[in-house]
Specification:
With about 70 residues, this protein is an all-alpha fold. The chain has helices at about 5-40, 45-70.
Length: about 70
């Protein structure tokens, strides 16, 4: 069984990958939102913006968790 520090490193690394995914998804949704707005589908844009806000909020929580795990 791995020791506690190995588990913490693995957890922090996994969270870091999730954070990178959060940023990638947010960027993709932002591009789609821009395209939707520019092509007359602006009714959908607020929903996409809301999704980006959720991703941003969760990205901050993941960042905080990574810092806590790495510092423990």
């Amino acid at each position: 069984m791995p020791d506690s520090s190995d588990s913490k490193v693995a957890t922090a690394d996994a969270l870091t990958l999730l954070l990178h995914n959060q940023h990638a998804l947010s960027a993709a949704i932002e591009e789609i939102t821009k395209w939707l707005s520019e092509n007359g589908v602006s009714i959908v844009a607020p929903n996409a913006t809301s999704a980006m806000e959720t991703l941003d909020t969760n990205a901050q929580a993941i960042t905080d968790s990574i810092l806590r795990v790495r510092q423990s």
